[in-house]
Every structure is written in C-alpha cells, then in structure tokens.
Design a protein that fits this description.
mainly alpha, 52% helix, 1 helix, SPW_0924 family protein
Length: 44
Amino acid sequence: MRALTAAAIGLAAALALVLAMTAVGAPSGETSPEPLLTTVPKHP
C-alpha cells in the first residue's frame, strides 16, 4: 500500500511539474545564426 501511495504522489508531482512548465511557456529569444560544432576541434 505504501508503494502505491508513493507512486501516486510521484506521478502527481511529475504531472504538476509538466503543467507548470507548460503554463510558463517557451522562453522568448532568438536562436544563434552560428552553426553548432559537430566535431571536436583539433589542437595544434
């Protein structure tokens, strides 16, 4: 019974976190025009 209660509390907390993040929305701003590096630069 304790495991079921703990699972329900954890699920409710995760759902509350997802709803809170959804309510806040995406951060405003622009993406960088510079391409991301896909390889590690070689050192001389």
